[in-house]
Each structure stands twice: as structure tokens, then as C-alpha cells.
Specification:
Length: about 170
Amino acid sequence: MVALVARTGRELQRYSNGRRLVVGCIPYRLKPNNDDIDESMEVLVISSQKGQGTMFPKGGWEVDETMEAAAHREALEEAGVIGDVEDSLGQWSFVSKRYGTYYEGYVFPLRVTEILDQWPEDDVRKRRWVTVAEARENCQHWWMKEALDKLVDHLSNPTSYSPCKNRERQDIPC
């Protein structure tokens, strides 16, 4: 059974050095029998709540959950998918367009195993499967595009993947 109510409010949000901590995921699936990752991989993008631009699911990391649990929750709430969260793609610092404050964002790949017909934010968000190229072109956040490039590189060259490489913070696991 899946809860069909999204969490709201910011009273449980995590902050570090005055920055809100957010966790996102890149929901993806692979078509069988194709070695070219750009052609075999599809990613699920969602609309912003205001309907302008596309992005990957993301939201505040709350004090009662792990980063991986937050990635699962955001995928369910915003995109209506369930899947397997994989190793972190890294951490990015960015300024929120909406609030003008600094955030720290962590992004995880999420290999989709189930697509729900109804989900908590289905009345305010649209979702669609797109190619990697289309996601790169239309995603409204530079840091999500960088995370997508890391995911593609990881899936293309699994032995070269190092999510902790060049990480600034040592107190938060990657």
C-alpha cells in the first residue's frame, strides 16, 4: 500500500550552515538489447508546480528520513513512480529561483520498477518519459543536467563512477 498524500510544510526540513538540504532523483529505465546508453535510456521528467519547464523530482530532506528515503518519497509524491535508489551522483550548491537562498542538493539515480496511475501530486504535475538528449535540452536546472551527465557516464562506464570524487563536505555521505 502506498500513501497518496504528499508531505507539506518545512518544520521537519534539514538545514546546514543556513542552507536548506534537498534531495532529488533521476527516475530512469533502460530499453533491452541496446548498448548505446543515449538511445536505450529514458528518464522521467516532471513539470514544475507552476507548469513552466521540466525537472526531476526533488524536495526537502527531512529530519526523520535518510537521503535515500527522501529520494524515494520525492519520486512517489511528485512523479508517481517507485524504484530502486542507487548510489548518489553527488552534491551541488545552488540558489533557489523561487526564494533567492542557497540550497545544497543531492541527487540519486532511481531505476523505476513501478509506475502508479495515481500519485499525490498528479493534480499539479505532469510527467513524461523522454530521451537523455531531450532531458538535457529542457531541464530547467543546471545542476540536474550535471547529475544526468554523471548518471549517463556511470551507466556507460560503471568502473569509472565515483560519486564522492571532488566532494566538498565530508560529514554528509554521498
